[in-house]
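Recap for those who missed Tuesday's class. We walked through two folding examples back to back. For each one, the amino acid string is listed first and its predicted structure tokens come directly after. Nothing is annotated here on purpose, so try labeling regions yourself before you check the end of the notes.
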Amino acid sequence: MKIKLLVLFLTLCAPFWVSAQFTETFESTSVNGATSFSSNSQTFNITTLTGGSTLKVQHAFVGFGWSGTAADDKFIDNDGTANTLAASFEISSATAFRVNSFWIYLADISNNLNVTGTLTITGSYNGVTQFTATTSSTTFNNKSAAQNNGFTLIDLSTFGGANNAVKNVDAITISTGGNFNYIAIDAFTWSGPLAPAFTTNPSGVAICPGLNTSFSVSTTNAYAYQWQVNTGSGFTDITNGGVYSGATTTTLAITGATAGMNAYQYRCVATGVPSFVPANSNAATLTINPSPSITTQPSNVSINNGGNTTITAQASNATGYQWQLDNGGGFNNLANTAPYSGVTTTTLTITNATLGMNGYIYRLVATGGCAPAANSNGATLTVTNAIVSTSGSLGNISTTYGTSSSSQQFNVSGTNLTAGILVTPPAGFEVSTDNTIFHSTVSVGAAGNVASTPIYVRLSSTAPVGSYSGNIQLTSTGASTVNVSTTTNGANTVSGAPITITANNASKTYGQALTTTTGSSAFTLSSGSLKNGNTLSTVTISYTGGAAANAAATTYTGVITPSALTGANGFLASNYTITYVGGNLTVNPASLTITANNVNKTYGQTLTGAAGSTAFTSSGLVNSETIGSVTLAYGAGAAATDAVNTYTGQVTPSAATGGTFTASNYTISYAAGDIIVGAKALTITANNVNKTYGQTLTGAAGSTAFTSSGLANSETIGSVTLVYGSGAAATAGVNTYTGQVTPSAATGGSFTASNYTISYVGGDIIVG
């Protein structure tokens, strides 16, 4: 035979041929019509099971086979015997194998492709079916001789929806139905068998004694099973009987497990084909949960009438608890109703026990996941009377805040106590057993009898101002509470500690308004002291005078009034007798500047100072106040003869008065103005000149032929320069030549030209 060998992979635990893949194309078969063939030294037999047609090696049709990649000459088919009956053929071997794939040609009795029918492939080992895969004619539609010679690949790793190529078989059955009458098979690919393997290992289980359970596995390529148990000395085979059944199946059943089987381990041994060592599953542990048991028994307890107590027990392997009571008629379950609580826990609480409960017996019933329940021993409750006694009485006491009062005394004693006596005074008081160290509570004695003991009582230094009364309570577990009154007639009192708060002195400027201020720190603690670490924070400041914007500049004594003192670190104003002392308010004058207006005058004019002038400006007036007038005095520049110039600061204001302002409310600064002397207007007019025709006029300086208007201070002009225009020539015709005598350059005399603004006016030349 011609064999195509494809080596897929090697394993460390199996022979080479087990992992190799072989493809038989029948090209080397020597006998036409043979019903067996050999591949890789393994013989395969072809057996007809049903249908009457025979599957055999075919040599007669050259080129009609398919090697998987090309046409070949030899294959196996049922040619010559095909009929219309359903056919079933088996390919088997004495040694296990696995089918990977093969190519199949399916047609009707007339060799027509693309007909309807079914194909079923079944694998078995030792007569036990390992898989069955079926498909319909849909898989073989659209086939032609031109496509793979009409053959279709059957891949057992996917055919039928499962990977059956990994399953060991010793026979594979090919069955057809419908119109699939002619069958041809080529390129038969197979591999050696696989070792058995577990796909699901057994899981550990936990049960109670006497219950049933099971362990299960699932495998591949296993054909026999044996369950084993390890009881502590290694694994041994299990046989059916006693608590075991299913010892040679995939499920081991245990019926009525015993406590002695706790921690047993179980595994399954799976046997495959003879060439492989059997496989062992993982071990699974059987846990037999124990029943609950009492580990700590409850103890007897003794309490006083009205007292509280607890009874406790402990159990192992318990998930539930129930306390029971035997009061003479046997044990019965308790409920969480007074005086009981915690009846379903390990600790039973008894509150306000009565004398009638004396001798009651209690036990705990513990239940768990497994029966039976566990009962504890009984614990007996003893209830007795406890008595607290006192002697002596207390009178009234008083103190001031921050100072402890003097102390008073009474005595306390007790009998049949289960605990000491707790002495608790009402608010504001503190107690002591040695009259030295005081506390908010003190304890006296212990269980048993307590001898008469003095108790000292006083008002605490931290007690707020007020009246204090109430009872001092004497308590002891199981004993009735005893009250000792802190008063006889009236009440105990704490009065305020005296302190004086003085407002700081302050000042303001006239025109500024002050309003009431909260949260001010402008004060001092001027007498007294703070108590108990108290600190001061703020006061409210108000004013009884001087605060208005128009309050006159002066000192207002005691008008800054403090009130509403606040503090921190426990400060309460009510704990103090507070005296508030006012501070002084000084109103300072406001700054006022009065500036004289500048004065303009003409040269030759005289300025005379006087009171009542309004020629000024001011800066700094408040409250919409006004100034009526000031007195002005003039310096340099005021005289008529003072030359043209600016005389800085020569207008001096003073003595502001009148209006709505009051001078005493201001600090007044006077600022001087300037005197500005301007030039005086002066007109110089040339005299008219008469001449006879033919006469010539010649201009020159030093002429007095002019008149002037505007000189001041009796001043004079010496001369001017005259210039002649038209009409001055000898040939000028007889006429009046207007404005042709032009004066200029006035000089001399007593005047100063710079003090004047000079206008020159021309005279006429009259030619006769």
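Example two. Treat it independently of the first, because the proteins are unrelated.
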Amino acid sequence: MIRKVIIGKKEWYNRETFGLELHLPGISPLPGQFFQVRVNDNLDPFLNRPISVASYRRGKLLLIIRVVGKGTALLSRKRAGENLTILGPYGNGVKVKNRGKSLIVAGGIGVAPLYYLAQHLKKKKIDFTFIY
């Protein structure tokens, strides 16, 4: 599903990584799912950027993005209050079961979707270890 959303907040975490908080009520993305983010309305760059869900709480979707090329560089210039077109959520995601312990291992920008998984495990009171 194509959605026009407003960037509620933008925060830089370091020189190359930033987060966009989008107002998006009424969905229930699973850990491991992602959105296709349209960089702009023209055809350059042509492809959308797949960005994993880093957090979703109370109608606010957090996407954490590392600037690695032209598309993500253009996204990094977006500001709070601007519109953004996203599609999704896509992917099967991770269905959290209420048993046993979990081990989460992440590195680099790959930590973003696993943060959301850790939130789900904590909410379900499932014991886990997070290694970064």
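Answers for example two:
The chain has a mean pLDDT of 92.
The first strand starts at residue 2 and ends at 12.
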